[in-house]
Amino acid sequence: MRKLVSYFKSAEFPRIVEVSENARKKVRNTLEAMDCSSALLITGKNVYDAVARKIEERLEGLVLRTVFVTTLRLEDVRRTEVEMGLEEVDSVVGVGGGRVLDFGKVISSELNAPFISIPSTASHDGIASPVASFKENGKPVSISTNPPAAVLADITVIRNSPIRLVRSGYGDLISNVTAVKDWKLGKEIKDEEYSEVAASMALMPANLLLAEADRLDLKTPSHLELLVKGLILSGMTISIVGSSRPVSGAEHKFSHALDYLGYGNGTHGEQVGIGTIIMEYFHEKAYGVGDWELIKSSLEKIQAPTMAREIGLTKEQVIEALQYAKRVRKKRYTILEDLDPSKEDFEIALEKTGVV
Ligand SMILES: NC(=O)C1=CN([C@@H]2O[C@H](COP(=O)(O)OP(=O)(O)OC[C@H]3O[C@@H](n4cnc5c(N)ncnc54)[C@H](OP(=O)(O)O)[C@@H]3O)[C@@H](O)[C@H]2O)C=CC1
Ligand SMILES: O=C(CO)COP(=O)(O)O
Ligand SMILES: [Zn+2]
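^ thats the input. predicted complex w/ zinc ion below
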């Protein structure tokens, strides 16, 4: 018999979440409210010039050290820890994109210090999640961390970030549609635990932004807020379930396969966006539930890529990645395990959906 799961029992969430046009200005108050007086600031070189320098100024007297993330490997985190020696920090502030926030999550968890997540863009749902994605020897590795203690999502900063990254965040959010369908398959066929609350939290913002694609302008603050809040909710579902199950299904396996094989030049959200079109096609074909054309047209409307060549992929590379995807995280039951599509099935799907 399936063991009883008590989601929520041990789930931890950010204690402070602020999504506003001035959230960055709350950083000093946030640290002080947490009784923190000695912070490690993690950022990137571009982001420093664009926004983090000002945040450092706001934190005058509170920042003990500023670290720039260039590459994202565990050895980089360890090196920073060694360089810090006996310096005692009681908090970590991360200002940046996914790489910076992932670095910050890991180092803050290892130092057992609260992490303040200040996303400089909205490229994926790692903003508020308790997971960091690293690459070790070219292989993607997901590391469980503490969730950020606070998330300060500044819409002014995000609005001025590269639009390609924000469009990528849209792709990562709507991928929840196939991720949840895959989870339901796991529940029905493998008797997997399933949380209706987590699934709804993942689906609602994704469906809202799919429905609004016609009107969506990712430069308009109120629209951007919807996207950012959706990504934050998505990250929180990972806290509820203790894994990325509600927001990562076959479309993410495809993206991980591309990363592993080193194919193309797409961002995470661009890859999963295209993966979502393909996996929705398979769901719709097999079970009559889904609308891959809606996924595709919404991505087109926000000007995210929907064709392999737009992210530097050939048809052969896409097919190899789809075949490889079945070997990624084998225990996670998805439409790929369910249908076990052949090479010909993949070719038909790619042609029908216009991905190649
Ligand atoms: N934890 C999770 O759940 C997830 C993590 N990931 C991981 O996240 C990473 C990808 O994140 P992503 O954000 O797409 O990419 P990056 O963090 O690599 O950022 C992409 C580029 O955009 C720049 N940038 C970001 N914000 C701004 C800004 N406001 N102004 C100017 N430049 C800016 C960065 O500058 P700079 O060089 O200064 O950093 C960087 O050069 C990958 O490592 C991926 O594995 C992906 C999905 C989920
Ligand atoms: O990208 C993620 C969710 O959007 C993280 O998922 P993974 O656990 O598949 O890396
Ligand atoms: Zn993702």
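The chain has a mean pLDDT of 96.
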